[in-house]
Design a protein that fits this description.
alpha+beta; 2 domains; four-stranded mixed sheet; three-stranded antiparallel sheet; 8 helices; 7 strands; about 35% helix; about 20% strand; globular; ribonucleoprotein; structural constituent of ribosome; Ribosomal_bL9_N_sf; Ribosomal_bL9_N; Ribosomal_bL9/RNase_H1_N
């Protein structure tokens, strides 16, 4: 299994590829004319997941993805329409906080912070999906089985290609949430309530939307949204 530092480097490449920053002339020649899009659904062959922001060939977007309503052009209006934030746009408050942290850090600490920020940006609009059978006599009780931190960790590696290091952990928030009502403050409150110093013993046994805490090196944490949905 690849170590998380390498995986996060891979994530960084994905995020960089989806960046709103202008492409260099060399990159433009290599990629041809590209446009930035928002995936409205999971794209075939794992090329992108719902909510991903990425660059694709302009012709592919114009002739295939947009007409088939699989994606939208990544404009401010479309981000607002979908109710998601542009992962490549840093608010003034976020910028001030980042600069203040970086000013007081060692080179190693700064590297760990940047890794955490990249992973947070990469996961911002993503929802990990876990399918489970449901008790026929219940509306949402899982049967058989449950979802725990070990299973979520495996799904994170398989579905989003993120393998955590041995000293990095996942802690599940047991209470379902409403993703539409979440904001930065409420997510931070959830993360602060999860004790990363102890092994996670939470077992989720019902369908719903949930939040987990990814604890990284350097004491940084990143939220992970996941949904447990009915498997037919």
């Amino acid at each position: 299994m690849m170590r998380s530092a390498l995986i996060r480097s891979s994530c960084s490449s994905i995020v960089a590829a989806a960046s709103a920053k202008p492409l260099t002339a060399t990159t433009q020649r290599r990629l041809g004319h590209t446009v930035r899009i928002i995936a409205k659904e999971d794209l075939p062959h794992g090329k992108a997941y719902k909510g991903d922001v990425l660059h694709v060939k302009a012709g592919h977007a114009r002739n295939h993805l947009i007409p088939q309503k699989m994606a939208l052009y990544a404009t401010p209006q479309n981000f607002e329409r979908l109710g998601i934030t542009d992962p490549d746009v840093e608010t003034e408050e976020e910028r001030e906080q980042r600069l203040a942290r970086e000013a007081s850090m060692s080179q190693k600490d700064e590297h760990l912070l940047k890794d955490a920020d990249r992973l947070k940006s990469y996961l911002r609009n993503k929802v990990l999906t876990i399918w489970r059978m449901v008790d026929p006599d219940s509306r949402d009780a899982l049967h058989p089985g449950k979802v725990n931190s070990w299973q979520l960790r495996k799904k994170l590696g398989k579905q989003l290609k993120i393998d955590l290091d041995e000293n990095e952990s996942l802690h599940l928030h047991q209470t379902p949430v409403n993703f539409a009502e979440l904001n930065d403050r409420s997510v931070n409150d959830i993360l602060e309530g999860l004790d990363a110093s102890k092994p996670c013993d939470v077992e989720i046994k019902r369908l719903g939307d949930y939040v987990a805490k990814i604890s990284l090196q350097g004491g940084y944490s990143v939220p992970l949204k996941f949904s447990i949905v009915r498997k037919n």
